[in-house]
Amino acid sequence: MIAETIAMQFQVPGQxxxxxxxxxxxxxxxxxxxxxxxxxEEQYILQRINQSVFKNPALVMSNMKAVTDHAHKRIxxxxxxxxxxxxxxxxxxxxxxxxxxVDEKGGxxxxxxxxxxxxxxxxxSIPEHxxxxxxxxxxxxxxxxxxxxxxxxxxxxxxxxxxxYLRKYDATLAQRSAQERLELSAEAxxxxxxxxxxxxxxxxxxxxxxxxxxxxxxxxxxxxxTNVMIDKVTGKGTSIVDLDTVKPGLVHYDFxxxxxxxxxxxxxxxxxxxxxxxxxxxxxALVQGYLSEAKGFLTENDKKYLYDSVRLIxxxxxxxxxxDYLAGNVYFKTSYExxxxxxxxxxxxxxxxxxxxESQMRRILExxx
Length: 369
Fold this sequence. Notes:
This is Aminoglycoside phosphotransferase. There is one protein chain. By secondary structure, this protein is an alpha+beta fold. The chain has 13 helices and eleven strands. It folds into two domains: 2-82 and 89-114, Phosphorylase Kinase, domain 1, CATH 3.30.200.20; 127-368, Aminoglycoside 3'-phosphotransferase, Chain: A, domain 2. Helix content is 46%, strand content 13%. Helix 8 crosses helix 11 (306-327). It is globular.
């Protein structure tokens, strides 16, 4: 097995005793590696980077190494004042000193330190968990806020640029096969009208960036709840993982995605749309946790657009699911024909729920800002 050979090519002492496939992610192949010496046991995470998603893995690793080195330095500087042990994965060097190993087929592999004694969760069900998720994201953004974005590569051009997704949707919609799918489904036609009714909203963040109201900073890029690690003993958040998507961007995309994934208890695969909603108790807790860390580096304009980011990210993901359904399910993995259509229904229903709660959400944000 190629992973067993690769596992011994990183700077971790010991002999290989176990290699276990772990995780349910749809991007990278992930393994837990266990090595032992006469006196100790070492464990780390081994991953093969998905090159169909990340076209230049070396740049992904360069971003990850630069940001985590910067973040680890900040964590150490603040350790005496912290109320917990903050962690982030460490990039473990290969035997030749590189940040990755390339196999004979051209596959890129990396080794990362494990986050000790933690769990991640598919959903948030209690406000205390939401508060910790918000605090973890706010802490991560704060400790990397001063990292110069000029030293980061944009490894996913167009990622979280909603007007670009709308253009791709329009191109898909113009295809005959997409029109045939619309003709066969009243629900698909309803979702198409949902998109039409919100076209003017799609550019709200990018337009603010163009006007100079918002500025780019380093962002995580994918801060969904499953990437937040919670300490098994204390119940406190200690880390955020899956740093492939670290890149320059608007912190609003991180905040919006954290709320989208964390404050809808029904989850992304719900089939009863009546269960899909933005839970205001979870939202208030997440906002409180997030702003306890992020308030100091956010500008007044940053704060002004926080609500809009939540609405936009729910819409954006729904648009991506819907476009993929119309294209014939070519991007997102599916287990049944209409799964992307249902996923789009869920996100658009969540977007509607967010819209109906705008006044309450803005009051919550103003209270904590």
